[in-house]
Each structure stands twice: as structure tokens, then as C-alpha cells.
């Protein structure tokens, strides 16, 4: 471990300086801090549950499974939080991010993606069938959206679900190699079932017209039997070693005419009756798909919280080390703590300040998300969608840059695997891509802002645009001259 500031004379001097009570600050920042203590104590007092730096992917996956089961045994059930207390769920994601990011992501796949898709896209029958087993991790599952050829453009997915009216079953099929489900978390080793996103096709009511494609919908598809063997028609391959997050078992899945009952359609937004008649209260395919994706914003909120947790952890490691580390100094005097150098302060203090800002920003997002779930207010749905996209993109990009700065600030010792910054940098990198690629998310935010701008100024004279900009600039770009 990096030397803590208590370990050196300079560290002791720094420690005696501040008149700062971390307890008051923590009380102000974290009203759920008791859960943080419970989680951190679990790992602190059970060091056999801590991930070491030199594990193979198989050992790391086994460790993450053990960690997840230990949390459940401790009475911390993420699905219950995700269902009843979102604030707790997101706070847990933040706490887990500094235990092991693979654990945070594995938990996210199981509870927010697999569990969340069943709860939010399905109806009461699906909740009854799966809730307890998902919660207890007896039914590990996947969220199988991405395909080899389509990641960001999910409306173009090619996997098919065709209704066989004669047997009242969906036939799930991968039509070509580009449609193989790829990168699917929980698939390579654990997944027993998956929410599979596929094009829903039913026979046309006009018998001449063949199949009607109603676009992408979600289906529950069993993957493995109790002994862990793939079911007939299901072929799964391991995606292998990744740059990071090797405690998560990502896999590729191909379906060859797999049959599941008609009720396995997650039918909150659309139903299909026994005769194959399709109905939905949402009139267009794009509105149905938007409603489906809208239910999945929780994943992005969770990632934002996890990323803020990583930023806080990395900044703490770097600042603490820089306070204790000494290099150079005035002639015939003790060496100086590197944190006393302006160059170190210029590197680390903006990160610390931004960590506070992002803490409050993600709290705001979480509170809006809770309100949105409670009120189901359409305007709030739009706002949370946009804010979660923008904040996820901003936070994960900032944290990724911060991890490199923190590593460099700790010099050579920052490069030792045991000190975690390198692992965090590798694990966190993909936060910029999954749950929506950052560039694509920012384009969505831009689209929403431009739509709002057009609605506000449509038909208005140029002068009203000018006074809006004047007002905006006055409140957003405040310049305070140095005294
Ligand atoms: C470790 C890991 C775990 C994952 N887990 C899951 C999972 O459990 N379930 C699941 O369904 N998926 C999962 N994914 C897939 C992930 O969600 C996708 O990788 C992600 O959505 C991006 O898609 P893509 O990889 O096809 O990238 P692409 O969409 O092909 O993007 C490639 C590049 O093109 C750019 N680009 C794309 N569209 C545009 C545009 N319109 N304008 C400008 N630039 C554009 C992007 O910015 C990016 O730089 C996982 C991926 C990884 C790596």
C-alpha cells in the first residue's frame, strides 16, 4: 500500500494543520453513511473477500461471486433496493465501486439490468415468476441487447422472435453472425436466463402478407439448466480477457430456433394474444422503443454514481500519498511534501473540487430519478433521460482523465498494482462506452437542448433570442477578478 500521511514526519505535520472535521463533512454529504460502514466493514474484517492484484479471470470471477453472496448474507439485497429504495441502490453502487469495480458491474448486470428489465418491462406475472430467485442470485441472468454488428444503434438489432401460433411459443433465432449477442455480462459462466432484445414478428392477420415486424422487444429466454449446461439451441462463448473488469464473465450468445412460451414476452408496453394479434397503447414503433429504453435509465444513473465513487477514491489515494511523499527542499532543511508544490496542487485540487461538485450533481440526478419513478411525470422522464445521459458522459470522461493524473501524481509507486490506480483506470475506462457510448449520449443531449431551444424561440423575433443569451451569459459566465 502507498504510505499514508501518518507514516512520515511531513505527513504528521500535515495532519496537525487542518481545522477540518471529516465527521461533520461526512454527515453533511452522506445521509446513508451507515450502509457505507456496513459494506466497508464487511470487507475490512474479512480480508479473504478482498480482490488481490494477480488473479486469473476465472479466479477473479469466483471472487466476485463470493463477494456478491457475502453481501446478500449480510442482508444487503440490491434487488430489494432497486425495487423499493432507489437512493439506497445507487448509494450501494457508489460504495461497491471502491471495493472492486467488477463487483459493482456484476451487481449492476444482475440487479439493475437483468432484474430491472424484468421488473420494468414485464408485468406482475414476470415479477411473481422471477423476483425471489433473481434477488437471491439463484437465477443469475443477463441483459442481452448488444449484437456483434449493432451496439449504439440498437433499433437495428437483428435477433428475431417469431410467434408460432400453432404451439403458442416464440421462436428466438440469430439469423446471421452479425446478430450474435456480444459482450453480454453474466453470460460466459453464470447466466441461467437472459432478457433478450429481439425483433418481434407475428403472422400477418392477412394470411397473404407473411410476417409483420413490430420492432425490438424484450423476451425472457432460459440459457442454462440447473447443472450449468447450455440448453438446446443456445450456444455461448467466453469473450475472453478484457482490458479490465475481468471479474465479470462477458460472453457471446447464439440462438438457434429456441422456443419459449408466449408469456415470456416482457409485455408492459405491448401484448400479443394467442391468435398473434399485436396491441400496444403506444401508437408507433419509435414511441414503444423510446418507452422501453426510457425504463433502462437506472443503469446510467448507477454508472454515474459508481464513477463518482471511483473519483473520490482515486483523489483520496493521490492526495494522501502526496501529503506524505517528500522530494527536495530548502538547503539544510527537511525535504518538502510534494503536496506543497504548486504543480501538484494544480493537478490534484481541481480534481478534489470537481469530486465535490459531481457528488452534488449525482445526488440531484438520483433525487430526480426517485421523483420520476414516484410521479411518472412525462416532463420529468424526459429530463432524467437527458440529465442521466449528459452526466454519465461528463462524469465518466472526467474520472477517466483524473485516474491518469492521480497515477502520475503518485510517481512510480502509483504504478504498483497493489496501489489500485492502474486497475481502476483499466476497469473504469469502459464506463465511457457501455450504457451508451459517451459521444452518442452527448449527441442525444444536444438534440434535446436544440429541440427545447426551437420550441422556446419558434416565431419569436431575433431580439428575444439575444436577450435570452444575454441573461444566460450573465448567470453562467461570472468572472471574479483577483483582488
Ligand atoms: C465490458 C463490456 C460489457 C458490456 N456489457 C454489456 C451487456 O451486459 N449487455 C449488452 O447488451 N451490452 C453490453 N456491452 C456492449 C456495450 O453496451 C456497447 O459496446 C456499447 O453500447 C457501444 O456499442 P459498440 O461497441 O457497438 O460501439 P459502436 O456503436 O460501434 O461505436 C464505435 C465508435 O463509433 C462512434 N459512433 C457510433 N455512432 C455514432 C454516431 N451516430 N455519431 C458519431 N459517432 C458515433 C462511437 O462514439 C464509438 O467511438 C458491453 C461492452 C463491454 C465492452
TrEMBL record:
Keyword set includes Flavoprotein: yes
SUPFAM superfamilies, per the entry: Acyl-CoA dehydrogenase C-terminal domain-like, Acyl-CoA dehydrogenase NM domain-like
Name of a matching Pfam family: Acyl-CoA_dh_M
Domain Acyl-CoA oxidase/dehydrogenase middle: 142-258
Chain ranges of the Acyl-CoA oxidase C-alpha1 domain: 294-449
Keywords: Flavoprotein
Cited PANTHER family: ACYL-COENZYME A OXIDASE, ELECTRON TRANSPORT OXIDOREDUCTASE
Protein name: Acyl-coenzyme A oxidase
Organism in which the protein naturally occurs: Tetradesmus obliquus (Green alga)
UniProt lineage: Eukaryota, Viridiplantae, Chlorophyta, core chlorophytes, Chlorophyceae
